[in-house]
Design brief:
The chain has 141 residues and is an all-alpha fold. Helix content is 63%, strand content 3%. The relative contact order is 0.08.
Length: 141
């Protein structure tokens, strides 16, 4: 497949793919008789993996270190496994933090929904008949 199709398949913009090739993150692909880049299934699998690493927050320098180790073959499997274990732990910590944030948001949304349903009551158009001298309750944050 040519670079435009490869970009669509991987989710990377064409310029990113060219940059990754320039810095050595992606091996230079074969070229057809017109000089156009031609990518195969192996390049697609690698680029999809790189996309997952980027999506999960791995830095370019970490990706380059992983790619260098990968290019050295099976002897670096322990090193690559450790890199991925470390990255996975970082991703898991971020996921846990995001879960905590979701919980706070859910609580806040429930608070607002309770406030809105309490103000509607059976007569949606009734005016406020509270004592004007009474302090108003604090609005939710």
């Amino acid at each position: 497949m040519r670079i435009a199709e490869f970009a669509r398949a991987t989710g990377f913009p064409v310029d990113t793919l060219r940059y990754y090739e320039k810095i050595g993150l992606i091996d230079p692909p074969l070229r057809d008789s017109s000089g156009h880049r031609i990518y195969g299934a192996a390049e697609l699998r690698w680029a999809e993996f790189l996309h997952r690493l980027r999506t999960t927050g791995m830095s370019i320098s970490e990706m380059l270190a992983y790619a260098r180790a990968r290019s050295e073959g099976d002897a670096t499997a322990p090193e690559r496994a450790e890199m991925l274990r470390t990255h996975r732990a970082e991703v898991a910590a971020r996921v846990a933090e995001l879960q905590d944030c979701l919980s706070v948001l859910d609580t806040k949304i429930a608070t607002y929904e309770a406030m809105m349903s309490a103000t509607k009551g059976p007569d949606h158009g009734t005016s406020d008949t509270r004592d004007p001298g009474r302090a108003r309750p604090q609005a939710a944050e």
